[in-house]
């Protein structure tokens, strides 16, 4: 539940989602669910020349299981809150 | 076969397991400080690495060094000051020798999905 809660705080922020097939998509976080499926708006592919078929995609749903990384905007990471939430989750959650 | 016709042996094994379990939970409760510092299960090692530099080996010949800020039971993680290393092997066209290449990149904050994690190693001494 920790990361679901955290990703909900990123709504409206710009993130880059890197998929397991090496495709990297930058977009505005629209929503996230319990499986960490992600919906992005105003998307653009990081390496457009390599993936020209993605040029017309403006928003998309990404299945959580195909995500490798999410690059987070530095301003939206409060490490103290994350540490506390992690300890709480490790103890009993 | 219904539950009531099961061999009594199964039931008693389960009973004794439950008893043992409940007895162990009756033991003296360790103080919060003690609980923080002991490693009883594998994930405790990760817990003790919170806010420390760790090394993570991932699927696809990827490695990450970074400061651990959050994790969960799937080993989903948020790391800071991340250095990712991707190792690839190329074969020289002429000599057919294997050339090992490493690509590195730095990222300020990174969420790593747990299903790609192979191992996590606690604080790096440098």
UniProtKB/TrEMBL annotation, chain A:
This is Sm-like protein LSM2. GO terms for molecular function: RNA binding. One of its GO terms (biological process) is mRNA splicing, via spliceosome. Its main location: nucleus. It comes from the Eukaryota. It is found in: Nucleus. GO terms for cellular component: catalytic step 2 spliceosome; Lsm1-7-Pat1 complex; P-body; precatalytic spliceosome; U4/U6 x U5 tri-snRNP complex; U6 snRNP. Keywords: mRNA processing, mRNA splicing, Nucleus, Ribonucleoprotein, RNA-binding, Spliceosome. Belongs to the snRNP Sm proteins family. SUPFAM superfamilies: Sm-like ribonucleoproteins. The keyword Nucleus applies. InterPro entries: LSM_dom_sf (IPR010920), Sm (IPR047575), Sm_dom_euk/arc (IPR001163), U6_snRNA_Lsm2 (IPR016654). Residues 2-76 form the Sm domain. PROSITE patterns: SM. Component of LSM protein complexes, which are involved in RNA processing.
UniProtKB/TrEMBL annotation, chain B:
One of its GO terms (cellular component) is Lsm2-8 complex. Pfam families: LSM. Residues 41-126 form the Sm domain. The keyword ATP-binding does not apply. InterPro entries: Lsm3 (IPR034105), LSM_dom_sf (IPR010920), Sm (IPR047575), Sm-like_LSM3 (IPR040002), Sm_dom_euk/arc (IPR001163). One of its GO terms (biological process) is mRNA splicing, via spliceosome. The keyword Membrane does not apply. It is found in: Nucleus. Coiled coil: none annotated. Signal peptide: none annotated. SMART domains: Sm. Belongs to the snRNP Sm proteins family. Component of LSM protein complexes, which are involved in RNA processing. Component of the cytoplasmic LSM1-LSM7 complex which is involved in mRNA degradation by promoting decapping and leading to accurate 5'-3' mRNA decay. The cytoplasmic LSM1-LSM7 complex regulates developmental gene expression by the decapping of specific development-related transcripts. Component of the nuclear LSM2-LSM8 complex which is involved splicing nuclear mRNAs. This is Sm domain-containing protein. It comes from Apatococcus lobatus.
């Amino acid at each position: 539940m920790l990361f679901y809660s955290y990703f909900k705080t990123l709504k409206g922020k710009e993130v880059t989602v890197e998929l397991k097939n090496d495709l990297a998509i930058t977009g505005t976080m629209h929503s996230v669910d319990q499986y960490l499926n992600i919906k992005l708006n105003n998307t653009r592919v990081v390496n457009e020349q390599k993936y020209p078929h993605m040029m017309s995609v403006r928003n998309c749903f990404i299945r959580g299981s195909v995500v490798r990384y999410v690059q987070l905007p530095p301003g939206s990471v409060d490490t103290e809150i994350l540490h506390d939430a992690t300890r709480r989750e490790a103890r009993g959650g | 076969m219904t539950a009531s016709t099961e061999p009594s042996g199964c039931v008693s094994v389960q009973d004794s397991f439950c008893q043992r379990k409940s007895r162990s939970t009756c033991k003296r409760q360790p103080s919060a400080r003690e609980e923080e510092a002991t490693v009883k299960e594998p994930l405790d090692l990760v817990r003790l690495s919170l806010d420390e530099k760790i090394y993570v080996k991932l699927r696809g010949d990827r490695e990450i060094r970074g400061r651990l800020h959050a994790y969960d039971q799937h080993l989903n993680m948020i790391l800071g000051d991340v250095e990712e290393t991707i190792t690839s092997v190329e074969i020289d066209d002429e000599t057919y020798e294997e050339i090992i290449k490493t690509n590195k990149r730095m990222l300020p904050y990174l969420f790593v999905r747990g299903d790609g994690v192979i191992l996590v190693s606690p604080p790096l001494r440098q």
